[in-house]
Amino acid sequence: MSLPHATSGDLINIAPLGDKFEGQVSHAFLKTEHVELMRLVLPAGKSMPDHWVEGEVTLQCLEGAFELEAHGKRQTVRAGEMVYLGPKVPHALHARENTSVLMTVLLNQRNSTQP
Question: Is residue 55, in this structure, part of any structural domain at all?
C-alpha cells in the first residue's frame, strides 16, 4: 500500500524515525510538476548504487550517517548536514548506520524558466 502524497497546507513529519526505524521503507511525501520530496530509508550497510537524476538534488541527513560518492570523492554526511548536487551528477550512497535522508529533487526546470 502506498502512502498518500501531501497536498498544499498539509503538515509533513520529517522527524527522525528512531526506535520506529525497523520495517520502514523509502517513500515520496510529495510530488508535483516541479518538486519531489522523499524520505530515503537506508538500513546500516545498505547502498543505493551509482545513479543520477535530471534535476537538482538536496540530500539532508535526518538521522544516522551515510557515505556519499559524487564528483570523484567520498564524504560522510551526518545527521543535521545537507549536500546539494547539480543536475545529472552521478552519485551513490552507502549507509554507515541506520539512516534516513530527506531528498528534494527539482523537476522540469527548463519548462519553468521558458516564457
Answer: yes
DSSP 44: T
Strand positions, DSSP E, 1-115: 27-31, 35-42, 47-51, 57-63, 65-70, 73-78, 82-85, 91-95, 99-106
CA distance 60 to 80: 7
**For 25-48, what is each residue's pLDDT tens digit?**
999 999 999 999 999 999 999 999
Residue 30 sits in which domain range?
Answer: 22-108
pLDDT tens-digit readout, 74-113: 999 999 999 999 999 999 999 999 999 999 999 986 644 4
The C-alpha atoms of residue 101 and residue 58 are separated, in whole angstroms, by 10
Please list the residues that pair with 101 across neighbouring strands: 40, 61
CA distance 78 to 89: 20
Assess contact for 94 and 107: CB atoms under 8 A. no
Look at the chain and report how many structural domains it folds into: 1
pTM of the model: 0.88
- Chain-centroid distance of CA 89 in Å reads 14
